[in-house]
Design brief:
The chain has helices spanning 7-46, 54-73, 86-114, 119-124, 131-158, 162-168, 172-176. It is an all-alpha fold. The protein is elongated.
Amino acid sequence: MTTTTSHDDGIARRTIRELKSFAVIFLYLYITFGAIILMKTAILHASGVDFAPWGLAVVKAAIMAKFMLVGHALKWGDRTKSGPLIWPTLYWAMTFMLLLVALTIIEEIVVGLLHDRSVVSSLRELGGSHLQETAAAMLIIFLVLIPYFAFRMLAATLGGDRLIHMFFGESARFILR
């Protein structure tokens, strides 16, 4: 009996692999953004302000995960493969953190426009009294991206799916198929 594979089978497998990658990145980022929003909610609640935009974490995680997949497809950071893994890890984390800064700026502009504020007025909210909060959030995201990219760099260095097998053992079959 001969098994034939069509071009569509390859596309289907690649699509499933991309969806799994998206799901892993999305979950990682959703947990991170959720933790930041939870912290912000607790701080604002202590000040008497109701704030709980959980949908924001979902949207930010989904958008950032997609941008990260595009960045990986474009092979950002490949030029920094020589030397210790810390350098490409920090490079990728910084690059994607800057991407998040750009997304945050765009988000503030859109939200401002939806609330009939000017672009300048919307951007003032990122600076001024909120500048420390914005800088702290960006630093947290940078620090969260470091282990993510360290894991990716280590996996690429070990080759294949070896690192995933080392972390998850036999249960990695579902992830890898």
